[in-house]
Each structure stands twice: as structure tokens, then as C-alpha cells.
Write a structure and sequence with these properties.
This protein has about 80 residues and is α+β, with helices and mostly antiparallel strands. The chain contains two helices and five strands.
């Protein structure tokens, strides 16, 4: 599970066994977890985060989208641009 960012108690990462899904990032804090698609920053799943938190995380995902895609492509070697 490569971690690509830690900020404000949030851990942004992806699972190494999900190469057949479109580029995305998982976010955890405490017992809460969310998943965001990198092509548009939309929420793919959420367990435990409030809507306000999801909005802040989505903005961060969009702001760092290219950095996250570089990490994804560097790990999976897919060349996907999201």
C-alpha cells in the first residue's frame, strides 16, 4: 500500500493490487475511509467521513491530481492520464 501523502492526519494511498481499476486514491483517518477517482475527483466510496470533510479532501485531491497520477503511473507503469 504505497502512501503518497500525509497531511492533517489524513493518509492518501493506493492498494498495490488494484491496477485494473481507473486511477484513484484512498484516504484514511482514524476509522474513516474514502476513495476518490483521480480523473474528476469524485467520491467513489465513503465510510465515516462527514460531507464537509469529503469536500475538503476532494479539493486536495484535485489540487494534487497530477502528483497523485504520477505516483499511480510510476507504481503501475500504466501511463494512464486519468
Amino acid at each position: 500500500m504505497p502512501t503518497i501523502l500525509r497531511v492533517d492526519g489524513l493518509r492518501f494511498y493506493f492498494y498495490s493490487h488494484e491496477p485494473n481499476e481507473p486511477p484513484h486514491v484512498h484516504v484514511d483517518r482514524g476509522g474513516a475511509s474514502a476513495k476518490f477517482w483521480l480523473h474528476d475527483g469524485s467520491v467513489a466510496g465513503n465510510v465515516g467521513f462527514a460531507a464537509r470533510d469529503l469536500g475538503a479532501m476532494r479539493r486536495l485531491v484535485l489540487d494534487r491530481r497530477h502528483e497523485f497520477l504520477e505516483a499511480w503511473n510510476g507504481f503501475f507503469g500504466s501511463g494512464v492520464d486519468g
